[in-house]
Amino acid sequence: MSNAFRELLKKVGSGTHTGKDLSREEAEIATRMMLLGEATPAQIGAFLIAHRIKRPTSEELAGMLDAYDRIGPKLVGNGEWGVGSGEWKRDKLAAEIPSSSSPSKETKPVTVLGTPYDGRDRTAPVTTLTALILAAAGVSVLMHGGDRIPTKYGIPLMEIWQELGVDLSKLSLAKVQELLEKTGLGFIYLPQHFPEAQELVTYRDQIGKRPPIATMELIWSPYAGEIHQVAGYVHPPTEVRFRDVFKMRGVTNFTLVKGLEGSCDLPCDRTAIIAISNPNTGEGFERLLLHPSDYGFAGKEVPFESTSQLITQMEEILAGKSSNLLQAAIWNGGFYLWRCGVCEDLQTGLDKAENLFTDGYAEKKLTEIKSAID
Known about the structure:
Elements: H1 3-12, H2 15-18, H3 24-35, H4 41-54, H5 58-71, H6 90-94, E1 110-114, H7 127-136, E2 141-145, H8 157-163, H9 173-183, E3 185-189, H10 190-193, H11 195-198, H12 201-207, H13 212-217, E4 227-232, H14 236-249, E5 254-257, E6 272-277, E7 285-290, H15 307-318, H16 326-339, H17 346-358, H18 361-373
Parallel strand pairs: 1-2, 1-4, 2-3, 4-5
Antiparallel strand pairs: 5-6, 6-7
């Protein structure tokens, strides 16, 4: 048992009247001790459920992210060299870097798509299609996640990629770095690239609730260069916490979406509530209320009924055919093409997204990614 961890546990688990929030440094220490197994399983489970009940503060989320930065994998860019993976094992992973590696000359920000690790089970996701057309338009995209995990056990991003013929689960970090530079797509896969975080997955099932780590993961960026951080959320207070965390950590380019099932997918059946970074405002952001009906994209959400049906719908879109999922794919693709600076306004983005699908550019990008990992 760790006495040091016990003191942090007592602080967050003492109840409404005597419990206290952790400082950023304490939250980093607690997260580090859980990731490295320095706390016992009983301590970890107690901490996660107590922290869930208390609700994490922005300062605590920032500290948790600090620990992930130190211990977790991190691709590089903007002149940084090689593939890092946290201070404590950086030397070990340096051996994985090919001798031919050179500093990235990427100057555009990498768009990091944060989406719930426990997947989707009610609405058909289009995040993968968004990533494909962004990459096809010259925007590098980094995703992260694992397999089907508690508490929802919904379909995860990795499974969708695999069903589309792209198995990203066995790539080394060096190969992921290479793939990102060559094709504009990268994927950090927890079981392969961050086993310390993967070890914490079992607690999600045992406590029966998403722990605060599940909130933090939405805004984790396993990239050392300039980023455009994209994340979804469900509850409005979460957006406020995210913006506060960004201020603490110096993230100035972000898009936060009250998306479908907490993802970064914009809804079609209601107004999309979005916060985008804007340094010209006093608060550093501006609020967007996008009505799908104003652009001809209003409609019912396409339900997720089975993996096979979802993949068929995606393959139809990539083949330039009509699909009941096409409207959602264009609506989301067009928005993110605009937000990533490819198009000067939303309508131009929507038109370009449709062309990227119907003219086969998204399918060509998928083929390119397949060839790059074979």
